[in-house]
């Protein structure tokens, strides 16, 4: 489960933030600059998404839905029955099935630690990239950009980023692993500047009176 959540965050925030400054191809750079500029103009972003993981060789086919609300570095993610809250300092992982809550400090020096702002620079290096196909998806023109990891140690074969040509919003992210696993996130709903309460990203312990608290600090 932890591995799936890490994959989700990597794909999801890539999808939300876009790839700032990575495009050498002029067409790709212009389009990605538009996406990044637009995203930066929002006070917050609310996304409903569909997640799928497939590996035909291993006969794996998993699907799930989720949603995430982001504002600055704060977020609330609901995915596969788990809620993750980040208030800018601590990460709260709430698992209703086990009635357990894990609390951990955010370590900015940890390269694996994920926040929206870190995603602005996460893909700035380490890839070869190219302008890919244009698809018509239910009347929407989706332009794809392909990214190929430079490092031979990277377990990903390629990443495809699909951008709605008209809205300049991200439509989907498709990650293909060297082992044949394909992980996809498709945006079902992309809303911005939503009304958010001041306590939206605050963990309230009293809401979980019978939960076991696992403090990982």
Question: Outline of this structure?
Answer:
The protein has 217 residues and is α+β, with helices and mostly antiparallel strands. The protein is 16% helix and 46% strand. A hairpin with a 2-residue loop joins β2 (60-71) and β3.
Describe this entry's structure for a reader.
The two termini are 21 Å apart. The relative contact order is 0.22. Strands 7-8-9-10-11-1-2-3-4-5-6-12 form a twelve-stranded mixed β-sheet, with helices on one face. The chain has three helices and twelve strands. With 217 residues, the chain is α+β, with helices and mostly antiparallel strands. Helix content is 16%, strand content 46%. It has a single domain (2-193), classed as Clam (outer membrane lipoprotein receptor (LolB), chain A), CATH 2.50.20.10.
Keywords:
outer membrane lipoprotein receptor (LolB), chain A; 12-stranded mixed sheet; 3 helices; 16% helix; globular; alpha+beta; 217 residues
Low-confidence stretches: 117-124
CATH superfamily: Lipoprotein localisation LolA/LolB/LppX
How many beta-strand runs? Answer: 12
- Briefly note the CATH topology name: outer membrane lipoprotein receptor (LolB), chain A
Task: Name the strands of the widest sheet in spatial order.
Answer: 7-8-9-10-11-1-2-3-4-5-6-12
- For the record, the count of structural domains works out to 1
Please report the first level of CATH classification, the CATH class: Mainly Beta
Tally of helical runs: 3
């Amino acid at each position: 489960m932890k591995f799936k959540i890490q994959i989700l965050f990597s794909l999801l925030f890539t999808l939300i933030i876009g790839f700032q400054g990575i495009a050498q191809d002029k067409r790709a750079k212009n389009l990605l600059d538009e996406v990044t500029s637009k995203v930066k103009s929002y006070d917050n972003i609310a996304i409903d998404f569909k997640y799928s993981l497939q590996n035909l060789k291993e006969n794996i086919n998993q699907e799930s839905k989720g949603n995430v609300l982001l504002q600055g570095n704060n977020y609330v993610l609901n995915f596969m029955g788990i809620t993750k809250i980040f208030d800018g300092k601590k990460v709260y992982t709430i698992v209703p099935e086990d009635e357990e809550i894990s609390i951990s400090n955010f370590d900015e020096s940890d390269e694996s630690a994920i926040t929206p702002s870190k995603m602005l620079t996460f893909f700035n290096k380490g890839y070869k990239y190219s302008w890919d196909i244009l698809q018509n998806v239910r009347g929407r023109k989706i332009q794809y950009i392909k990214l190929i990891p430079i490092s031979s140690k990277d377990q990903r074969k390629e990443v495809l980023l699909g951008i709605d040509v008209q809205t300049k919003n991200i439509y989907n992210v498709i990650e293909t692993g060297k082992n044949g696993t394909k992980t996809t996130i498709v945006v079902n709903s992309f809303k911005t500047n939503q009304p958010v309460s001041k306590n939206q990203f605050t963990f309230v312990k009293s809401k979980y009176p019978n939960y076991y608290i696992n403090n990982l600090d």
